[in-house]
Specification:
The chain has one domain (about 5-190): 3-Layer(aba) Sandwich (Aminopeptidase), CATH 3.40.630. The strands form two sheets. A seven-stranded mixed sheet has the order 1-4-5-6-7-9-8, sandwiched between helices. The longest helix has 15 residues, at about 110-125. It is of the alpha+beta class and about 190 residues long. The protein has five helices and nine strands; from the N terminus they run E-H-H-E-E-E-E-E-H-E-H-E-H-E. Strand 4 and strand 5 form a beta hairpin. The chain is globular and about 45 Å long. GO terms for molecular function: acyltransferase activity, transferring groups other than amino-acyl groups. It comes from Litorilituus lipolyticus. Keywords: Transferase. This is GNAT family N-acetyltransferase.
Length: about 190
């Protein structure tokens, strides 16, 4: 059995596997066929006639074992959960790291970091100089914040209840159920 992990841009052929993995890790209703198209399209832009996709999958023997969804700069909403006055870079030059998900059996092998690095390189091609994310502080052992910090992320602010509205619209948080009160750590990575 090969241990090789292959990385590819996220395209429609991987959508169902990404939906299944996302819902198994984050909770039922996290992803569906409408969200995956919307989220993926927010990470695709044309740069000098080239299609640049900031979304990636990690494959082991043609099975999706990880994925990263990243919105291109200017293709995501700056909302009440964002603190652009603290970012120290223009908001129109910030991409948004929507989610990074790795199958539990494949964690600790550098897959999440590789997916992040691929997304950063693509976002830089699109003109981004930094990336914002909201990290799930209730992840096991706060692993999401630890991973993002290890990759260069800097803490900006914390937001309780960031995912509450999604939970009222069908997302079932693995901790809170349909009334998610989990805390989000707003973090930024500056691209050098």
């Amino acid at each position: 059995m090969s241990n090789e992990i292959n990385y590819h841009p996220l395209t429609a052929e991987y959508y169902q596997q990404v939906i299944d993995l996302g819902n198994s890790v984050h909770g039922d209703g996290y992803l569906d066929s409408n969200k995956i198209v919307l989220w993926t399209n927010k990470g695709i832009s044309q740069i000098n006639g080239e299609t640049v996709n900031t979304n990636f999958v990690a494959l082991h023997q043609d099975k999706v074992v990880g994925f990263r969804i990243t919105y291109s700069a200017k293709q995501w909403p700056i909302d009440q959960w964002c603190s652009p006055s603290l970012w120290q870079v223009p908001q129109e030059q910030c991409c948004y790291f929507k989610c990074n998900t790795v199958n539990e059996q494949y964690r600790g092998k550098g897959i999440g970091k590789k997916l992040l690095m691929l997304a950063i390189e693509a976002a830089k091609k699109q003109g981004a100089v930094a990336g914002i994310s909201h990290l799930w502080k209730q992840s096991p052992n706060n692993s999401a914040v630890k991973y993002f910090t290890h990759c260069g992320g800097k803490h900006i602010a914390s937001h309780v209840g960031k995912w509450n509205e999604e939970s009222k619209q069908g997302y079932c948080c693995v901790i809170c159920g349909y009334d998610c009160q989990c805390e989000a750590a707003e973090m930024i990575i500056y691209f050098d």
